[in-house]
Amino acid sequence: MNIVVDTNILFSALYDPSSDAGKLILFALERRVDLFAPESVKLELEHDLRKKLAYAEAEVRETIAALPVKWVESGAYAGAMDIAKGQLTHEADVPVLACALALGHEIVSGDKHLLSIKPKIARVWRLGQLIKEIQR
Amino acid sequence: MVTTVAISPELAKELKLLKMEEGLASIDEVIEKMLIEYKKRRFLEASEKFRERMKEKGLKLEDLTK
Asked: What's the complex ipTM?
């Protein structure tokens, strides 16, 4: 199962590994699910770790390396950005949808904008639903 | 497809022993399980640091997940 994640899922997992977001990361480490994210998500994580939490560069690198996520370069989903922009008003979510569309993967998010996407465009899982599906 | 890695005889002996103790089918499986456990520990350490730093900075999760 290939799933695109957003920044909130990754921060939530780091904050509480026993949460559903944390469980998703542990499932990915066990190779029960493959996680992907656009490089914009990686840049946002790096930015917040540096600016809001005063992480040193080595700490940023270690944290990013600890996340079992395949980072997708912007060139790989650039062609889907226009379609994604047409579906979302919240700009920060656009690369997540574009990445999912370009790769043909599904999304997991708690974000109301992403959750409002029509199923014919992309399947967006709520975290709790996805965890149940993986555990089935 | 398989490949070869060079390890000391002592380490090879330990891996074989672990394979028997854990009832695993191959050394490949032993190494894979060890890698998963190593990566889990690395993630949990990153998580611990993350929570500590958030506490130091007086931040809540909501401050990062707007």
From this structure: 0.90
